Amino acid sequence: MGKTTKTKFQVSGMSCNGCSASIGRALSRLDGIEKAEADFQKGSADVSYDEKAITKEKIIETIENLGYKVEGES
Predict the structure, then answer these.
(1) Residue 12 has what pLDDT?
(2) Res. 1: pLDDT tops 70
(3) Is-contact 72 10, C-beta < 8 A?
């Protein structure tokens, strides 16, 4: 097991709780994701992941494949 990394991604295109839930479910299914919660009101997704098991790029790709846009991170 690698180091746990926590990142907040700025996500545009979410308009409801269903959008937030879709992102959370999709990310939670990925190997290496420890916790994933999206919030459409804040326009963000908080993700805790094992950086040896999954890359930040794969997380962004997964969000964007759902039709949302990752604008940055903090």
Answers:
(1) 98
(2) no
(3) yes
pTM for this structure? 0.94
Contact 8, 59 (CB under 8 A): no
- Domains of the chain with bracketed CATH: 4-73 (3.30.70.100)
- Phi, psi dihedrals of residue 4, rounded to the nearest 5°: -80, 130
Contact 10, 64 (CB under 8 A): no
Q: Given the DSSP bridges, would you call strands 33-39 and 69-73 parallel, antiparallel or unpaired?
A: unpaired
Is residue 12 within 8 Å of 68, Cβ to Cβ?
yes
Sign of torsion, CA 18 15 26 35?
negative
